[in-house]
Design a protein that fits this description.
The complex is a heterodimer of chains A (366) and B (176).
Chain A lengths: L7 E5 L11 E7 L2 E8 L7 H7 L2 H9 L6 H16 L5 H30 L3 H21 L8 E2 L2 E2 L7 H24 L2 H7 L7 H6 L5 H5 L6 H4 L20 H23 L20 E9 L2 E9 L7 E5 L1 H6 L2 H5 L4 H11 L3 H5 L1
Antiparallel strand pairs in A: 1-2, 2-3, 4-5, 6-7, 7-8
Helix pairs in contact in A: 2-3, 3-4, 4-5, 4-11, 4-14, 5-6, 6-11, 11-14
Chain B lengths: L3 H11 L6 E3 L7 E4 L4 H10 L7 E9 L4 E4 L5 E4 L2 E9 L6 E9 L4 E3 L8 H12 L2 E3 L28 E2 L2 E2 L3
Parallel strand pairs in B: 2-7, 8-9
Antiparallel strand pairs in B: 1-2, 3-6, 4-5, 6-7, 10-11
Classes of the chains: A alpha+beta (366), B alpha+beta (176).
């Protein structure tokens, strides 16, 4: 007698600890094997793009903070680079160096959350707390710079909201040798942990062609083995002056995506080390235009956010507020590939795969 | 590696009936506009031709051009009639390292654009977003549903310039 089977639809989320926010995944199962994944988004939709059309160019910056709230500095960075391209202005060297340092510190902070919560998803609680201790130090650096710890509104079109604190350089220089051994500690705790490896290696393998076709970027693309980083391949700001490597994975599985982030933190430290000694003197607000009114035209500018390629498509109609802002959010695009990665894996692996993409729902839903 | 002008010339030689034009007067990036019902074959050519190899669709954005005739209804809200809705495609070739921007414009009353989902899978969600926000219909899209707004949203398409905030949602009064 043949066993009668039928497809089961399982809802994961919107309130599920491993979805990192409010995301609902509709899993189609055959037994415990996932045959299809349908993500349902929009629970955190706040009409960012509609808001932009009613704001002046500088007023948009605090809204960009609230997209990827774990990497606010870099969201500011991407937006101001775009508007500056549209205006055709050059910002002072001092501003560029401070932006790069802040951006790289933010990258480390964002990756620490990604790695810590990834451990948490898989069942390792302790590394999460270790990561947050180090992230706290970075947030302290941001706090003495601009007063805010999470949503900074720090980078302005043509400059910065505040100059760095007199202690900032000293404290950052102290942070680098303090943090470097902690990467090794994290590796010992989590990266080479046998249980962790069994949960992540050969899970959610993403071939390189599929990754490009789906527009994946950042650690998801690099985990699949593509040597691609906009800081090197399409340089913006002053990234072409620094010496750093692009870490890549081999198999494109969850462990590779995770490990690329670990290696990237080391590269970010290298960039900060090179930049921190070279900050020239100057006024960080000298190039801020009195009235921001770009000429008619469009710009698509993209930067390498901790999550991937963050693009801003801005249309100017010649007035003081943007006609249209479209954000190419890296989490949004990276999440769209989840269906390909989950096919044929077990339900428990969906948690591991979702965590390895490192999404922030504030950015997916905007 | 080719610049947008060269790509424009190749495209207009290859597709003489697709109404291809280039606007090179824009300050940052020139834009190549094409027929919305030819975008699929042109994209296929751009993705597969050995001199093009545009393997990455960086971004796809829907835009309300708001170039129709503007009138006011009895409550004082803007109403736009006529004009176009546009879709912008930002393409990049990762191996040859060149970029172009394509644009298609479709009439506001019946905005139909061919889907490019079968060429770049990343277009799937971007097109759903453009449909959700602007009501652009992508022909041959496998799964054209709302993505960010609720599935039962009946108040229209939020990113249209004449969008009017609804007073009620599912019978509840919405305060602003």
């Amino acid at each position: 007698m043949a066993l009668k089977t039928e497809e089961l639809v399982l809802n994961m989320g919107p309130q599920h600890p491993s979805t990192h926010g409010v995301l609902r995944l509709e899993l189609e199962l055959e037994g415990e094997v996932v045959t299809n994944v349908k993500p349902h988004l929009g629970y955190l939709h706040r009409c960012f793009e509609k808001h932009c059309e009613a704001m002046t160019y500088p007023q948009v910056i605090p809204y960009t903070d609230r997209m990827d709230y774990l990497a606010s500095m870099y969201n500011n960075f991407g937006y101001v680079v775009g508007v500056e391209k549209l205006l055709g202005i050059q910002v002072p060297e001092r501003v560029e160096y401070i932006r790069v340092i802040m951006g790289e510190l933010q990258r480390i902070a964002s990756h620490l959350v990604a790695l810590g919560t990834y451990g948490l998803d898989i069942g390792a609680f302790t590394p999460f707390l270790y990561c947050f201790i180090d992230r706290e130090k970075i947030l302290n650096l941001f706090e003495i710079t601009c007063g805010a710890r999470l949503l900074y509104n720090y980078m302005w079109v043509g400059g910065l909201s505040h100059d760095i604190h007199p202690d900032f350089v000293r404290l950052t220089k102290e942070f680098i040798p303090y943090f470097r051994p902690h990467i090794k500690e994290l590796n010992d705790l989590l990266t080479y942990n046998k249980i962790f490896i069994e949960r992540t290696v050969n899970i959610g393998v993403l071939p390189i062609d599929t990754a490009i076709n789906y527009g994946a970027s950042g650690p998801v693309l690099r985990g699949s083995g593509m040597k691609w980083d906009l800081r090197k391949n399409d340089p913006y700001s002053i990234y072409d002056r620094f010496d750093f490597d692009i870490p890549t994975g081999k198999n494109g599985d969850c462990w590779d995506r995770y490990y690329v982030r670990v290696l990237e933190m080391e590269q970010s430290l290298r960039i900060i080390e090179q930049a921190i000694d070279q900050i020239p003197d100057g006024d960080v607000q000298s190039a801020i235009p009195k009235r921001i009114k770009p000429p008619k035209g469009t710009v698509y500018s993209r930067v390498e956010n901790p999550k991937g390629e963050l693009g801003y498509f801005i249309i100017s109609d010649g007035s003081t507020s943007p006609f249209r802002v479209k954000v190419r959010a890296p989490s949004f695009v990276n999440l769209s590939v989840i269906g390909e990665m989950c096919k044929g894996h077990l339900v428990a692996d969906v948690v591991a795969i979702l965590g390895s993409i490192d999404i922030v729902l504030g950015e997916v839903d905007r | 590696m080719k610049n947008p002008q060269e790509i424009f010339e190749i495209l207009s030689a290859q597709f003489p009936d697709a109404n291809i034009q280039i606007d090179a007067s824009l300050p940052v990036e020139p834009i190549i506009s094409v027929n919305p019902l030819k975008i699929n074959v042109i994209s296929k050519f751009l993705a597969e031709n050995n001199e093009m190899l545009f393997d990455s669709l960086m971004n796809l954005s829907g835009v309300d051009d708001a170039n129709g005739t503007k009138t006011k209804d009895e409550d004082g809200n803007d109403v736009i009639n006529g004009g176009t809705l546009s879709v912008y495609y930002h393409l990049h070739a990762t191996k040859l390292n060149h970029k172009i921007t394509l644009k298609v414009s479709a009439p506001r009353e019946n905005p139909e654009v061919e889907s490019v989902e079968n060429i770049w899978k990343t277009a799937n969600w971007h097109e759903r977003e453009a449909f959700d926000m602007l009501g652009i219909k992508f022909l041959n899209h496998p799964d054209l549903r709302r993505i960010l707004m609720p599935y039962d949203w009946e108040a229209g398409y939020p990113l249209r310039k004449d969008y009017k905030n609804p007073e009620f949602y599912q019978g509840m009064k919405v305060t602003y």
